[in-house]
Amino acid sequence: MSFQFVVAAREEGARAGTFSTPHGNVATPAFMAVGTLATVKALDPMELEAMGAQMILANAYHLHLRPGDTVVRELGGLHAFMGWSRPILTDSGGFQVFSLASLRTVDEDGVEFRSHIEGSQRRFTPESVMHIERNLGADVIMQFDHVIPGQSDAASARDASERSVRWLGRCARELSRLCESESEPRQSLFPIVQGGIHEGLRREAATAIMSSGDWNGFGIGGLSVGETKQDMYRMLEVVDDVLPADRPRYLMGVGFPEDLLEGVRRGVDLFDCVAPTRMGRNGAAFTADGRINIKRAEYRIDKRPLDEDCDCVACRRFSRAYVRHLYVADEILGHRLLSLHNVHFLVRLMGVAREAVRAGTFSGWSRDWLARYYSQHTISA
Q: Could you confirm whether 91 is annotated as catalytic?
């Protein structure tokens, strides 16, 4: 099989496994760095591979606008285009369209929106998005869904969730038509469980999705979009009880250390987020003792690495004082080192979590890890 998921160990809700794709295996749980425009900002694919990154995400909306998904197809697809030989997942653009609140309208057929780049009128439908993601050629492609704010009322959440289920059927039919000539599927469509922060709607969506097809994995969407963290964790517990245990679960757009560990505890296998590179560009770094803001004057003569427990290139070679100097002086290397460190931090954190699940120590290890992480005052960027 081109796509397969094998769970090797469990500890309560947490599990460690292997997700197999046409471009290689992904040991789970895993953090996927976000390469929105076919690049993880400021980082070379070789650096990502060296730090242990296994799978990355690219975005259909942004790549459709530039350079164009047909251009990417003509150049051999995303893997060849960006020089990354390992698995890739593409987001459908549903969240990006959601974020264009003043520039889009939603109807049953799809979404009409204006490009945020030059204002041209565009339309996404489930069928057109399948064409775009087919052109890009990622291993895992996400359905086109209707995303709404995290605190939306039950009526709005139901409308968006049920529409997402209907759009899933259209995505699946169109992808099947496009793949008729393939004897072995090269792409796997993941549905997305919506439902806002309403337990009943989440259960209904998961049940409807499972009854509509045999899926290789599931996305959990519509979280980290304005709801509280406790509401997010509660929704993960709801879907953990409903979704099949033998398929990977992907929590979309979530990537802070505490959320990764709380997600793993609740049965999540894959994560992605722009936070590590965005924070790096804003001068913030993850450490085992909480988040630090490298712009602060206290680091001006600090000889310590960003994180004394980290083995990334930035921490092995440079001091906080040097990284602060680069950042304050607006040197590109400062942005690169902070971004590299943050992505490495999350990739490594998931690697340690995998080993803890396999050893049966995840519960105690994660509790101690989070206690240390929260013990210091976290300074936001």
A: yes
